[in-house]
């Protein structure tokens, strides 16, 4: 499948193995990497997928909480060329989505090289090739050499750990949301959830459902929308309206419908941004929260909404309004970030500041010298699928053209040999 052979590099002969890849190297075996591999397979292009973890979709398998479900209907989350099984519910669970990804990899014969952590990747202008150096779990160094490099490590490669005054002195348990599995272990405890995105909202709900006492920190404005309106997905309604109406008008309609369904949420400490939810998503990549029951718990007082944090003490937290809360544990639902700047030695395409392509969607999928990016659109799985299709077609066109030229040269050579004979 991989269509690779060993290539000896005299500079590194004694220090590492060098492997020539007859096709692209894809860094990352999450949904973005799998989608790209499937699109390349459809174009007849060989490839190699490198994954630092021991499994595909490690974010979903190792760093996602148990109650997690897809926030959007399944038709907006499926990867190219293989829909979800018909018997899956409208919002597949974590386990169902992992099953789908594993079946996707089997269907397209995608076999990543696991436990291969990319240390660096650079473009060699002399040879016109990419040199990708990895380190395995057994400390074995390998250098992969290829014409095309696809960065599929995505937006959620590394946890964001905030620097909050006094957090290191707090004596209770402190975990990132990536370590949270279930509220069962927090039963009866007072838990501070830092962050009010979809993860923060759902973790607070899960904690309340397990008889913990969660307080959720909301230090800025946030759009909270019902997941469904009149039995239809809010996202689906927005997509339908955007076919006919301008973005600003769709935002207004969505907010009016949200007010009718949810009522006035600002009295519970949830202040809406002045910018509409769709415009904010397009401009800054901030995803609106789709409510799955958290608001009801906030209204009942089972989940307490608190302002920003001033500092932590040994067994308490002091808020910006001067209030002090005794707490037993802290869950940091503070998100993730790209790790591309830590290993990709390239200055033009990716930003060193945030690890995203410098050009905004829909132009951030292709760089120079055979460099591609997938899964950095801030548009979820549908954005990654869009990138993957473009990358597969772009590389596929070059691959097919070169294959035809090789066949033509072989045929011409064969005819000359026959004529000479």
TrEMBL record:
Record keywords: Auxin biosynthesis, FAD, Flavoprotein, Membrane, Monooxygenase, NADP, Oxidoreductase, Pyruvate, Transmembrane, Transmembrane helix
A single MF term (Gene Ontology): NADP binding
Keyword Isomerase: no
The EC number(s) this enzyme carries: 1.-.-.-
Name assigned to this protein: Flavin-containing monooxygenase
Reactions accelerated catalytically: indole-3-pyruvate + NADPH + O2 + H(+) = (indol-3-yl)acetate + CO2 + NADP(+) + H2O
Stated family: Belongs to the FMO family.
Organism: Senna tora
Regions crossing the membrane: 244-262
Pathway assigned to this chain's UniProt record: Plant hormone metabolism; auxin biosynthesis
Entry annotated with the keyword Transmembrane helix: yes
InterPro entries to which the protein is assigned, alphabetical: Auxin_biosynth/cation_transpt, FAD/NAD-bd_sf, Flavin_mOase-like
Any one of the GO BP annotations: auxin biosynthetic process
Top enzyme class: oxidoreductase
Cofactor(s) this protein cannot do without: FAD
């Amino acid at each position: 499948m991989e269509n690779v052979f060993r290539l000896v590099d005299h500079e590194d002969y004694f220090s590492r193995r060098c492997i020539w890849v007859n096709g692209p190297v894809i860094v990352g075996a999450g949904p973005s990497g799998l989608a790209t591999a499937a699109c390349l397979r459809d174009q007849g292009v060989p490839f190699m997928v490198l994954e630092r973890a021991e499994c595909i979709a490690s974010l979903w398998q190792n760093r996602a909480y148990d109650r997690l479900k897809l926030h959007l209907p399944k038709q907006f989350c499926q990867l190219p060329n293989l829909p979800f099984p018909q018997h899956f519910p409208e919002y597949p669970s974590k386990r169902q989505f992992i099953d789908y990804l594993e079946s996707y990899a089997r269907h397209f014969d995608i076999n990543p090289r696991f436990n291969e952590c990319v240390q660096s990747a650079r473009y060699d202008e002399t040879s016109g090739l990419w040199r990708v150096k990895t380190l395995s779990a057994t400390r074995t160094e390998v250098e992969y050499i290829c014409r095309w490099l696809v960065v599929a490590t995505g937006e959620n490669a590394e946890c964001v750990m905030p620097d909050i005054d006094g957090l290191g002195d707090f004596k209770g348990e402190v975990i990132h949301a990536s370590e949270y599995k279930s509220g069962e272990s927090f039963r009866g405890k007072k838990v501070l959830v830092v962050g009010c995105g979809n993860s923060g909202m759902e973790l607070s709900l899960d904690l309340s459902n397990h008889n913990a006492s969660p307080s959720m920190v909301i230090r800025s404005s946030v759009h909270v929308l019902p997941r469904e309106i009149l039995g239809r997905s809010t996202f689906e309604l927005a997509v339908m309206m955007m076919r006919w109406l301008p973005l600003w008008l769709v935002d207004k309609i969505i907010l009016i419908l949200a007010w009718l369904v949810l009522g006035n949420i600002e009295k519970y400490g949830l202040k809406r941004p002045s910018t509409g939810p769709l415009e904010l998503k397009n401009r800054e990549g901030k995803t609106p929260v789709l409510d799955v029951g958290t608001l009801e718990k906030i209204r009942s007082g089972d989940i307490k909404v608190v302002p920003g944090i001033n500092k932590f003490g040994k067994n308490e937290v002091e808020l910006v309004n001067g209030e002090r809360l005794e707490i037993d544990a802290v869950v940091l639902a503070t998100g993730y970030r790209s790790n591309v700047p830590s290993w990709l030695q390239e200055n033009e395409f990716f930003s060193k500041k945030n690890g995203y392509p410098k050009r905004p969607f829909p132009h951030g999928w292709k760089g120079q010298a055979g460099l591609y990016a997938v899964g950095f659109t801030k548009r979820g799985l549908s954005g990654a699928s869009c990138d993957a299709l473009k990358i597969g077609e772009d590389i596929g066109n070059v691959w097919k053209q070169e294959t035809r030229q090789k066949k033509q040269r072989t045929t011409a050579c064969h005819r000359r040999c026959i004529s000479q004979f």
